[in-house]
Task: structure prediction
Amino acid sequence: MRYGNRFIAVSQLVPLGAASPFEVEAYLLLALPRSLGGEGFCGIELNVEVMLSTSARAIVGKSRVYIDLLLFSPDGRRQVAIECQGKASHGRAGDGLRDADRMTALQAMGYDVILLTHRQISDEDRFRAIVKAVCRMLDAEYRDKSSDEQRAETLLRSELFVDWTKLGVIDGKMPVRHKTARSWTAAVLSE
Result:
């Protein structure tokens, strides 16, 4: 039950509002304390609603958009919007253009915006470069991780970057009740 207890403990650190496993991974890597393998950023909000200015509305054709992860500087004066570009965002024709419109509208309102891909967060060197860029944008100093913090990050990454569709699979098979379930509801879980 060692991993089950750890999963429960870490899951309690994720705020409500994550729209995808990718957002959860990004949030944990950025927000967890360095002693637990994260980068220790404070003041991160998920799926923040932004009411657009008239000029930004003209760019995107909407009155509001949502920022996947919004990071704040320690003094609250600077913000960096992180848009998670998962596989699904490139699945349909036009998705890339809508993402570009949303990003341009946010930039028109003064937000610094970073597009984050799964490839970037799963590669330690690429992710480190992104973290350093975020620090510069927030006027925060980046500090290299200690050897203990690096070990904690390696452990965190080994647990985060798994196939989330296989969670609960035992010996290559899903339990029968899960095969027929269309959604995870309290009724299904209590069967």
Observations:
- The mean pLDDT is 81.
- The longest strand covers residues 64-72.
- Strands lie at 44-51, 64-72, 79-85, 112-117.
- The two ends are 22 Å apart (CA to CA).
